[in-house]
Amino acid sequence: MRNNHSESFLMFIFFVSVSMKMVMAENSTTIPVNVGVILNLDVGFYKMMLSCINMSISDFYSVHGDQYKTRLVLTTRNSKQDVVGAAAAGLDLIKNVEVKAILGPPTSMQASFVIDMGAKAQVPIISFTASSPSLSSLRSPFFLQATQNDATQVKAISAIVKAFRWREVVPVYVDNEFGGGIIPFLTDTLQAIDVRVPYRSAISSTATDDELGEELYKLMAMQTRVFIVHMSSIVGSRLFIKADKVGMMGPGYVWIITDGLADFWSFMNSSVVDSMQGVLGVQPYVPKTKELTSFRNRFKRKFVQDNPDIVDADLNVYGLWAYDAITALAMAVEKAGTTHLGFQKPNVSSNSNDLENFGVSLSGLNLLQALSDTNFKGLSGNFSFVNGQLKPSPYEIINVNGDAARGIGFWTAENGLIRKLYTPINNTTSTYSTSNSSLAPIIWPGEATFIPKGWEIPTNGKRLRIGVPVKGDFTEFVKVRKDPTTKSSIVEGYSIDVFEAAVKLLPYALPFDYFPFGLPDGRSAGTYNDLVYQVYLGNYDAVVGDATIRLNRSNYVDFTLPYTESGVSMVVPVKDNKNKNAWIFLKPLTWDLWFACLCFFVFTGFVVWVLEHRINEEFRGPLFFQVGTSFWFSFSTMVFAHRERLVSNLARFVIVIWCFVVLILTQSYTASLTSLLTVQKLQPTVTDVKELIRNGAYVGYQDGSFVLGLLKNLGFDESKLLVYNTVEEWDALFTKGSGNGGIAAAFDEVPYIKLFLAKYCSKYTTVEPTFKTDGFGFVFPKGSPLVSDVSRAILGVTEGETMKKIEEKWFGKEASCPDPSTSLSSNSLGIESFWGLFLIAGVASVLALLVFLAMFIHEQWDVIMPADSRSLRQRSIKLFWNFYNRDLSAHTMRRNEVNDSQIQNGPVVGEPSPSAYSVRIEFPGEQDRVSSENGDRNSNEHQPLQETSSNIEVAIQNHERPRVIEIMQD
């Protein structure tokens, strides 16, 4: 039994060991995947990349070897620095080796043909050095740029140009696929920030030193001093050495290099570095990590072992992209699977050539999709593809200073120029910055510390050629005369003085010479359009004079800011329009104001009567007498001649406010009427352009002016247009008149009109409309950097005392005539100027009426709400007569009370009493009422006088005939 158990145990151990060996054998089995690499192995720089690729494969599988079944097998081919060699290498790798992907070719020129082959064979082409944007225009889905596309760095370069306000740049690039591919993107980006590219310097990759010098001398003769260099390190090194020799690396010059040179900084020798002092550059930013530091150390040891003949080898970002690209490919191959790793052979004839005889990769689409989805953090930073291109990274801005290129800032798509690169955690910047203050201090070429202005005038002793108009009219602006001794031209005038004052404010010297645009006999050589066009042709560097800023001219040249007023107006004679008719006294006030005054006079009289008639004998009497007194009192306040005494405080309050209103009205009326009667009113003879056209009137314009085209556009017949050359001719045409060979109106620009009116201010004026123009400006070539500087200088002249002195010099102190463009308006005063006063008077009167009404109701409450059963009609009549009659309880009526007592006690001796007679009147129906109330008819003799009077008036009001009972004499 023990032996059986021992044998069983041994058998179990045997089967376990065999199974483990089988599993280990299965796990140790890997699937090779062929991958091609095309590099220029004759150059040490590309050997560095190959070492990075080999180290990447070794590092990747040493970490993931147990998890990955696939293994990349590299097949390297040498392109021999030739496009044909790269194409042959690609064809061999696809047709014979049947690679599943190709890394390379190294240059953009070599990559173009290989990309097309990869698209046909569905083999992904991954390039970590070919950065030309033109490669993406091939629109091949099987091409992946594992490097920064050159189009992404142009925004960083344009941000630098904008930060220092340079207006012109010249790109200097190698004339091949690599150099020319960036130019359209660079030009468009610069134009977006209003920067001009006057010239493109394309240099052949095989250019000799003499050819380089010839091109640099051409650049030196230009005004522009900002150059953007985009070329390989080989040609770029020779260019800067030559530029240093010809004197183009001194103060005032600006050189900006792209990453095509900046990334190869460490591979340049000391002579090249010395010639590049002060150069700015942009290069992709690589985060400094522990993994990168460790890799650099291992790379140096590995590279020295593999290439002992190469000394001081260094690692740049292209080597890091190569390392990350092979890592991404290894991950994608494993993800794509190993189901279809073969090639489908084409059905071709035996006579087909090699380009038609290679098959299609069955795994190409899966591998392409896997590569597009790959995303990881590599040595160069975050590595992922977006639309077949490596996701853009921030750019570091460097400045060559001494033996090193020091970083002075960064550029990011989100924040623009920044001093430090923020992490997503502490990023507090949300705005896009284009300020040069975001960069560290820069040492410019020639060890200059000031910011170069970006251009130079003159160059090599050249002086600015300035054209000036030759004219016989309005010489106050520009006057050209001959020096009798030297026979040279002397140029002077208002425009000339303004220009020379502006030049003095420039922060640099600007030598120039004037060149009159005229014929030998002293006449003008053409119109102002012809003169301006000379700048476009290059015959003049600028034009200084009374040239108007016009749209059609701005298509060919640039203008500075205007230094004069703008606009074209119509000038017409004036006539005295003084009104001398009999009704002129009504003109100071408009009809609505007259009506408002009348209404308020009536209303104020009524208010005073309401407040005074119960307590003031002067406002009592017959009805028409009271109406007349009230209106008389109100209207007499207009001249403050009212004699009636006011006893009510409410009435006094109303009259105080009303007298204030009347005072302002009378004073305003007096001032306006005085103006109408004494001031001369000059009115234009014509006020409408359409009236001139309709009547067929003659109009004038200045000879050679663009106003002629304006008048034709307005509809004037050319036969009705007359020309003048001087202000004297202008006045003479007006004096003749339109029907006698003269003109009825003239059209000209505001500066000429002001000069004309300064001499004939009392005879003419301008009327609307004013046609807008931009005034006079100085002319420069399109895109000239002088435009902005001279414009700022013009502002300094016009805002200071200098302009006033220049105007007084050429136009005199009396040049400022009253503004003729101001339209003549009516002198009549309207209600809109006084509605506030009327509002105050109205509120005061209404308030007084409300107070009076409240007091009256309170006094008559027994009448309104009697204890007896009087009807509403009786109460209303009683209330009305109480309002209409005297208020005997008021202190102003005490004299009447004395008179009443005299009636009862007898008159004073020697003084007749108006109450000496007592009249008793019986009203219809009154007898019964009195008898019932008093029980005795004789009790009526004790009825109050006030009630008796009221009964009389009520009877009269009701057309009843009272019966006189008796008349008694005391």
Describe the model:
By secondary structure, the chain is an alpha/beta fold. The chain has 32 helices and 33 strands. An 8-stranded mixed β-sheet has the order 7-6-8-9-10-16-17-18, sandwiched between helices. The termini are far apart.
Helix content: 40-55%
Beta percentage is 15-25%
Strand count, sense and closure of the main sheet?
8 strands, mixed
- End-to-end Cα distance, whole Å, is 178 Å
Oligomer: single chain
Category by helix and strand content: alpha/beta
Average pLDDT rating: 79
Number of helices: 32
- Main sheet: strand order: 7-6-8-9-10-16-17-18
Unreliable residue runs: 1-27, 819-826, 900-970
Rg computed from alpha carbons, rounded to a whole number of angstroms:
53 Å
Tally of extended strands? Answer: 33
Dominant shape: elongated
Quick rundown:
Disulfide bonds join 761-817. With 970 residues, the chain is an alpha/beta fold.
List the helices and strands and how they pair.
Blueprint: H1 2-28, E1 31-39, H2 44-64, E2 70-78, H3 83-97, E3 101-103, H4 108-121, E4 125-127, E5 143-145, H5 150-163, E6 170-174, H6 177-180, H7 183-192, E7 201-203, H8 209-220, E8 226-230, H9 233-245, E9 254-257, H10 259-262, H11 270-275, E10 280-284, H12 290-306, H13 317-336, E11 343-344, E12 360-361, H14 364-372, E13 375-378, E14 381-386, E15 389-390, E16 395-401, E17 404-412, E18 416-418, E19 464-469, E20 479-482, E21 489-492, H15 494-504, E22 512-517, H16 528-537, E23 542-543, H17 551-554, E24 557-559, E25 568-576, H18 591-612, H19 623-636, H20 649-678, E26 682-684, H21 689-695, E27 699-702, H22 707-714, E28 721-724, H23 727-736, E29 745-749, H24 750-759, E30 764-771, E31 779-781, H25 786-798, H26 801-811, H27 835-859, H28 861-864, H29 872-884, H30 894-905, E32 917-922, H31 926-934, H32 945-957, E33 963-969
Parallel strand pairs: 1-2, 1-3, 3-4, 4-5, 6-7, 6-8, 8-9, 9-10, 19-22, 19-23, 27-28, 27-29
Antiparallel strand pairs: 10-16, 11-12, 13-14, 14-15, 16-17, 17-18, 20-21, 24-31, 25-26, 25-29, 25-30, 32-33
Disulfide bonds: 761-817
Keywords: Disulfide bond, Glycoprotein, Ion channel, Ion transport, Ligand-gated ion channel, Membrane, Receptor, Signal, Transmembrane, Transmembrane helix, Transport
Subunit structure: May form heteromers.
